[in-house]
Amino acid sequence: RAQPALRFSYDMLGEGARTFADGARYFASYEAAIDAVGRSAAAGHSISVKLSALHPRYLATHKDRVMAELVPLVLDLARKAKSYDLNFTIDAEEADRLELSLDVIDAVFADKSLDGWDGFGLAIQSYQKRAGAVIAHVEAQSKRLGRRMMVRLVKGAYWDTEVKRAQERGLDGYPVFTRKAATDASYLACARQMLNARPTLFPQFA
Fold first, then answer.
1. Radius of gyration of the chain (CA)
2. Model confidence over 15-66: pLDDT tens digits?
3. Measured between alpha carbons, how far is 91 from 12 in angstroms, rounded to an integer?
4. What is the C-alpha to C-alpha distance for residues 182 and 99, in angstroms, rounded to an integer?
5. How many CB atoms are closer than 10 A to CB 200?
6. How many Å apart are CA 124 and CA 154, to the nearest integer?
7. Which of 97, 113, 95, 101 is nearest to 137 (CA)?
8. pTM of the model
9. Residue pLDDT, tens place only, 117-162
């Protein structure tokens, strides 16, 4: 009996760029990886990119510069992924960068050069209290553009950092759930929300 086709995600997370030379080096690595996977693998595999690895000023305080300089880089990588019919996922960042990440994602996703391709997506962290709102946002964007978006649901990777930063700032609350049971419940609620958004969204679970 024929075995079902397997699909893989290649996650090149790396560290955040500290200089523009770092960003250029990561960009070249992403390009090379997309070429390598695209030339050797069947359609449907995925590659993930980290926005903070591509620009050393990936901060809300530098939004104008990020939009002018980073969006074209991400769009170039997305177009290359489209040319191979690879899936292309924007990885999640810290809570402080969420709005900026969504601005970059919205700008890239809306570009007409990506019409006819449903391989663009993002990762959403269920331990963030705004996860449900992010799902609603990308669903609305997908409906507006008439294009499907992949959404990969994860639990999250920066919990210690998020809690510590909130404590250092003396905030009244945390941007993430502080109990595992709450994160688990959020994951299930987000999964249900994503499944209910089909076929506008293509849910993926990690």
1. 17
2. 789 999 999 999 999 999 999 988 886 666 889 999 999 999 999 999 999 9
3. 10
4. 23
5. 18
6. 6
7. 101
8. 0.92
9. 999 999 999 999 999 999 999 999 999 999 999 999 999 988 999 9
